[in-house]
Amino acid sequence: MQAAEPITLAQVLDDLDRRGFTEHFTPCGGRLCAVTRHRRFGADEVVVSEFHRFEGVSDPDDMSIVYALETRDGVRGTLTDAFGVYSDPDVGAFMAGVALAPAEVEDPT
User: pTM of the entire structure?
Assistant: First the structure.
C-alpha cells in the first residue's frame, strides 16, 4: 500500500483561495493589514476560521503555519508564518489576541 502524498502549503493556500480566503494579511504596527484592501484590523475584529501546520519533509526546522482569518465585517484571507524559532514575533503577538471561530455544534435531536 502506497502512502498518500503530503498536502503542501501551496495546495492549502490554493484551496483556501477557492473557498473565499482571498485577502493577504500581514501584521503592521500591532494590527493586521489587508494588503489589497488597504485596511487595518485589531485582534478583536478577527477570528481564526482554521489553521494548518506544516513540517518540512527533509528538515524539521522548516515548519510553517497558515491561518485562515475572517474579520468581523467579512474580509477573508490568509496569514502565513514560520513555526518555531523562525516565527515572526509580530505575527505571534497579534495572533495571541485573536479568537478561534466557534465550532459548529450539531443538534443531537
Answer: 0.84
